[in-house]
User: Which sequence fits this backbone?
C-alpha cells in the first residue's frame, strides 16, 4: 500500500460521500441572473410606486384613489410574477447546462428532496403573504417574503454547498430589519433578492464552477 | 506492520470503497442510483455488491415499483464499524509517513 493510493482512497471516499448527499449542479450563474432580474423588477416596481405617490393628490381630488391603488397592486403583482418566472427559468437553464457538462443527472432522488425542502417553507410562506395581501398589510409583505425565503434556504442547506447558510442568515436578518423599517420594503427587497443573489452567485461561481 | 493489518482487504477495490462511502451517508440507496453515482456497468457493480453482502456489510431489500423490481441497499452496523476502522487505518497510515 503506497502513500499515493492511500491519499487517492481517502479523496474518493470524501468525494463519494459529498456527491451522493449534495446536489452540486446548482450553478452560481443562476444566482447572478436571478439577482439581476430582481433588481430590474425592483426598478420597475419603484417607478410604479413613484408614479402612484406623485399623482396621489390628483387621485384624491378625482376620488379615484382606491381604483388607482388596486391598479398599483395589480402592476406590482405582475412585476413580481414576471421576475419569479424569469429567475426560475434562467436558474433552471444554467443548472441544466452545468449538469450536462458534468454528466450528472438533473432529476434524482436528491434533486427532488432539494425541491421539496425548498418548496414546503416557500409554499406556506407564500400562502401567509397572500393572507397579508388579503388584509391589506402591504408593508409586511417584503419582510415576510425575505424571512420565509431565508428559512427555505436554511431548510435545504444540507442538500447543497454549505455556504448557502450564510445567504439564508443574511436574508432572514434583512427580513427582520425590513419589519422595523416598514416603508423601505422595496429597498430591502432589492438588496435581499437582487444584491445578495448576485454576490452569492458570483462567489459560488468562482469558488466551485470555474475550473 | 501492525498498521497495515488494520486495513480491510474487502475494501481494496475502488468500487467497494465507493459503495461503502455512499451507503455510509445515505439510508437505503437503490441499485440504479448507486450505478449512476459510481458510473459503473451492471456486471461490475453486481459482483461487488454480492461480495459485500456475503461479508454482511450491507443488507438488501427487494421491492416493487409498479411491476418493476426495485432493489435497495443499506449498510449494516457491522459494515459501518468495518468501514470506519478502514478509514481510520488509512488516515493513520498517511499520518505516519
Assistant:
Amino acid at each position: 500500500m503506497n502513500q499515493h493510493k492511500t491519499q487517492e482512497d481517502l479523496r474518493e471516499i470524501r468525494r463519494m460521500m459529498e456527491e451522493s448527499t449534495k446536489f452540486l449542479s446548482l450553478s452560481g450563474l443562476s444566482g447572478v441572473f436571478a439577482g439581476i432580474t430582481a433588481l430590474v423588477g425592483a426598478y420597475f416596481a419603484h417607478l410604479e410606486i413613484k408614479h402612484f405617490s406623485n399623482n396621489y393628490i390628483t387621485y384624491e381630488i378625482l376620488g379615484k384613489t382606491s381604483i388607482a391603488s388596486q391598479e398599483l397592486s395589480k402592476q406590482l403583482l405582475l412585476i413580481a410574477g414576471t421576475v419569479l418566472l424569469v429567475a426560475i427559468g434562467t436558474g433552471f437553464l444554467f443548472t441544466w447546462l452545468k449538469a450536462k457538462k458534468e454528466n450528472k443527472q438533473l432529476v434524482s432522488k436528491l434533486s427532488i428532496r432539494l425541491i421539496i425542502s425548498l418548496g414546503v417553507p416557500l409554499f406556506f410562506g407564500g400562502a401567509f403573504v397572500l393572507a397579508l395581501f388579503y388584509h391589506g398589510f402591504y408593508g409586511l409583505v417584503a419582510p415576510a417574503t425575505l424571512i420565509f425565503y431565508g428559512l427555505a434556504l436554511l431548510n435545504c442547506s444540507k442538500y447543497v454547498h454549505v455556504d448557502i447558510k450564510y445567504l439564508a442568515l443574511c436574508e432572514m436578518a434583512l427580513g427582520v430589519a425590513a419589519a422595523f423599517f416598514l416603508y423601505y420594503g422595496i429597498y430591502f427587497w432589492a438588496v435581499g433578492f437582487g444584491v445578495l443573489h448576485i454576490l452569492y452567485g458570483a462567489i459560488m461561481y468562482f469558488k466551485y464552477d470555474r475550473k | 506492520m501492525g498498521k497495515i493489518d488494520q486495513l480491510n482487504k474487502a475494501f481494496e477495490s475502488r468500487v467497494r470503497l465507493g459503495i461503502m462511502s455512499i451507503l455510509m451517508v445515505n439510508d437505503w440507496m437503490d441499485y440504479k442510483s448507486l450505478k449512476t453515482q459510481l458510473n459503473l456497468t451492471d456486471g461490475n457493480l453486481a459482483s461487488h455488491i454480492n461480495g459485500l453482502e456475503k461479508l454482511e456489510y450491507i443488507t438488501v431489500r427487494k421491492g416493487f415499483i409498479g411491476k418493476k423490481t426495485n432493489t435497495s441497499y443499506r449498510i449494516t452496523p457491522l459494515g459501518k464499524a468495518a468501514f470506519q476502522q478502514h478509514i481510520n487505518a488509512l488516515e493513520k497510515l498517511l499520518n505516519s509517513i
